[in-house]
Amino acid sequence: MPLRLADLVALPELRLSVVAAPDPLDRPVEAAHVSELLRPGQWLQGGELLMTIGLLLPMTTQACRAYVLDCAAAGASALVLGLGQDLPHQQAPAPLIAAAAEAGLPLLTVPDEVPFIAITKAVFAAKAAEQHRALERAFQAQRRLTAAAASGRGLTATLEAWVDATGVGAAVTDLLGRPIASVGLDSLDQFGPHGLPPHVTELVHKVAARGLRATASSTAGSLGVEVQPLGANRLRGLLVLVGALTLDDRMPASGLVSLLSLELERRHLADEPERRRRSALLRRLLDEAISAEHARDVLSVAGLSTDTVRTVAVEPAGGATPADVAADLALAVPGGLVRVHDGLVEAVVGEDLGLLDVLTRFAPGSPAGIGPAVPPEAATGSLRQARALVGVSRALGHPAEAREARSARLLLGFGDRRALRGYADAVLAPLDSADPAGGLVRTLATWLDTGGSWDETSRRLAVHRHTVRNRIDKAMRLTGRNLDDGDDRFDLWLATRIRQGLPAPGT
Fold first, then answer.
1. What integer pLDDT is reported at residue 282 of this predicted model?
2. 399-416, pLDDT tens digit by residue?
3. ∠ CA 67-73-75 to the nearest 5 degrees?
4. Cα distance between residue 402 and residue 409, in whole Å
5. In a 3-state reduction of DSSP, which class is residue 172?
6. Which strands sit side by side in the sheet containing 216-220, from one edge to the other?
7. Is the distance from CB of 88 to CB of 54 less than 8 angstroms?
8. Rounded CA separation 117/291 (Å)
9. Does residue 382 carry a pLDDT above 70?
10. Are 375 and 292 in contact (CB under 8 A)?
11. pLDDT at residue 405, as a whole number
12. Do 348 and 306 touch, CB atoms closer than 8 A?
């Protein structure tokens, strides 16, 4: 409990007398301060017990009212007037009592036998004892959390210890907001056994998108919601706290984040044998000679019941290793099969899984190709297309889906890269020589992609439409091509598309 004004008045050694108390003496006292200024408010921060002997204060109604209002506006907890034979006042003046009562600010008196420093010491001794009690409570809660985490009963045991210590409900979710464990939420009206409310899921997604350094909080009705990231070097999950966290809860909350992060890292390491098993299942599924019956048996062993699957190939980016991305995707795709092959992360998942959402959360910024939906026995062909689309995704800056890709893009992915690159270099060589910076090629590619729209090309390149027209005319003169000729136009489009869809030599 914080130190209250009534607690100080109850100390017999201070001999405090209440002469004006417009409300119960339950105001918190944060500090004690002595001032003889007529306008001490600018020196206060709020919650102070302001002590004075009234040396400079004229005991008129107007002066007392201005003084008391200044103190009240600054958030003073109460006024204490020192009385004594050698002091300006031997009893509280009536104008000061009236002003305090009018402003609703408690007024106390103390005899000269009790120095102001005794009150100051009493206040800070009480504050120190309060902080000591808070630390003791935090240490006790931390010990209970640590014991629960070491019990071997997983996330739920740690969350139970937290709720017992604080009364604040908690849940651990994966990066898609799917609850992994929760305690103390089912009894709350806005929360139930079927997941988190939309406004909480939105917070989870916000933190998941920003990574380990992000947090988010909001108030839903009367409930405070706070989301904290979990994990060591990579984001492994999220902690959702629901309830009013006090200052005393903050220290064990930090410990809770650390303990849950350790448990998720332990799970990650413990799941390695299972990831290897599922990788082996994927190799079996991708056998060219697999039958429909055998393919469905493989999916059944993996726990995936579906008539249609989709495939995805991911090229890790942003410093992530293929093993890290594969482990993250293995958590994100229930029943899905994941492996690392030739530097790419490959997966086969159920058709109904939102792959774009999964890639955004678990492989942000990584080029990725998504194959078409096929029967399980045709997964190899779908994955071949997904791998071919990785280069297209790298050029587009977002995951590329087979159903959205033109057949020419798939042709570029399946064709011999050296031959395709040679073709593009032969067609575009005059533009490369005239403009080594690549402005002519970029303008031509953009103009062709927009269907010959001068305005859209101008907008995308942030140049004037006359500049676009001049560049296109120059490109036609240099290449000797005619944009009105269908063959010439296709040759130029294919050459620019090869440049966009294939990596540079040596990469």
1. 86
2. 888 654 444 544 555 456
3. 110
4. 9
5. strand
6. 179-183, 169-173, 237-242, 223-230, 216-220
7. yes
8. 90
9. yes
10. yes
11. 41
12. no
Please give the pLDDT value at position 317: 86
**Contact present, 431 and 420 (Cβ < 8 Å):** no
| Strand segments (E) across 135-196 | 169-173, 179-183
User: Is 433 in a helix, a strand, or coil?
Assistant: helix
Structure tokens at 428: 């575009």
Dump pLDDT digits (tens) for 109-158.
Answer: 999 999 999 999 999 999 888 888 878 888 888 888 899 889 888 899 99
Q: How far apart are the first and last CA of the chain?
A: 65
Q: Which of 30, 78, 73 has the alpha carbon at shortest distance from 50?
A: 78
Q: Interhelix angle for 272-285 vs 322-332, to 10°?
A: 90
Mean pLDDT of 292-308: 84
What sign has the CA pseudo-torsion 71, 76, 82, 87? negative
Q: For 205, left (φ over 0), alpha (ψ -120 to 50), or beta? A: alpha
What's this model's pTM, rounded to 2 decimal places? 0.56
The residues with which 370 forms a beta bridge, in sequence order, are 312, 401
Q: Dmax over Cα atoms in the chain, in whole Å? A: 112
405 SS3 class: coil
| Pairing, β 309-314 against β 48-52 | unpaired
- SS3 call for 333: coil
Sign, CA torsion 277/280/284/288: positive
β-pairing, 223-230 vs 48-52, is unpaired
Q: Taking 90 as the threshold, does the pLDDT of residue 105 lie above it?
A: yes
Check whether 29 has a pLDDT greater than 70. Answer: yes
Cβ–Cβ < 8 Å for 38, 123: no
The b-or-e profile of 403-413 (16+ CB within 10 A means b, else e) is: eebeeebbebb
Residue 89 corresponds to which tokens in the numbers above? 């006042």
In the predicted structure, residue 287 carries a pLDDT above the cut 70: yes
Mean pLDDT of 246-263: 86
Q: Tell me if 145 sits within 8 A of 231, measured CB to CB.
A: no
- The CB density around residue 363, as the number of other CB atoms within 10 Å, is 25
Burial class of 333 by CB neighbour count within 10 A (0 to 12, 13 to 18, 19+): buried
Q: 218-255: string of b/e by CB count within 10 Å (b at 16+)? A: eeeeebebbbbbbbeebbbbbbbbbbebeebbebbbeb
Q: Is 86 left (phi over 0), alpha (psi -120 to 50) or beta?
A: alpha
In Å, how far from its chain's centre is CA 180? 18
Torsion angle (degrees, nearest 10) of CA 88, 92, 96, 101 = 160
DSSP string, 228-249: EEE-SSS--EEEEEES---HHH
Amino acid identity for residue 214 in this structure: A
191 phi and psi, to 5 degrees? Answer: -120, 150
